[in-house]
Amino acid sequence: MVRLRHRYLVTEYSVTDGRDSGANNAAIRSNSVMEALTSSIKRLHGVHGVAVTKAGLLVKYINNSTQILFIRMRRSAFTLVTSAIPFLRQVDGKNVTFKTLYTGATINQCNKFLVKYQRRKLEEQYGSLKTDLQRQLFERELGNLKPYSVQIGNVLNV
């Protein structure tokens, strides 16, 4: 029996519409990301590229509040998928840009990276605050946050 090996991409997306990118505007669905990614692969690599990548391609995790998503693919299709991601321009009728943050072999490694990445982003935001009152409010809001993690079984929409 052959073991299927996967690769996981941690990507960050940003909605670049002219409108304000609030929570409702920035929300995208996992199946619409899959459709856009498949059409991008078809444009770049043809029907053969779609056939190679279709079997193991899946959006494992999407968080619309932090605009982070995990994409799982088979190891053999890794180069086809990663070459198609920069050409994704529209998802759900919204102009979107994607930035690949990390590539991992397991979802646990990607989850560890995501925790470190988000901690760095919070420290940057904390350093940019100017007054003590702003810092106290920031720490209070940080204390109210609930920890979350990636559920392996299905897509988690937070």
TrEMBL record:
Keywords: Nucleus, rRNA processing, tRNA processing. It comes from the Eukaryota. Signal peptide: none annotated. Its main location: nucleus. InterPro entries: Pop5/Rpp14/Rnp2-like, RNase_P/MRP_POP5, Rnp2-like_sf. Gene3D superfamilies: Ribonuclease P, Pop5 subunit (3.30.70.3250). It is found in: Nucleus, Nucleolus. Belongs to the eukaryotic/archaeal RNase P protein component 2 family. Component of ribonuclease P, a protein complex that generates mature tRNA molecules by cleaving their 5'-ends. This is Ribonuclease P/MRP protein subunit POP5. It comes from Orchesella dallaii.
